[in-house]
Amino acid sequence: MSQLLGIIQRLKTMQEAKDSGEVQQRRFEVNGKTLCQVKYFPATDTFELEVYDDDKKTNKYQFDDLDITSIEIFDLVQEANQE
Question: A Pfam family for this UniProt protein (predicted)?
């Protein structure tokens, strides 16, 4: 549960920096492997989740809700921890 709270806090920090007008981004890693990158777009108040797979391919998903974005990242981290 504390891991989920940490993810939520990182995303909230991205939202709070929206006054700078710059796109905020964070990477989420497990054991040195980058699982995903999140970008926050203040103009539209949306998150873009870019998920990396083992073949170096990416999939991008758009979210307008912090909680759903957090859950998606949490699921990715949990899957990586179980490998």
Answer: DUF1797
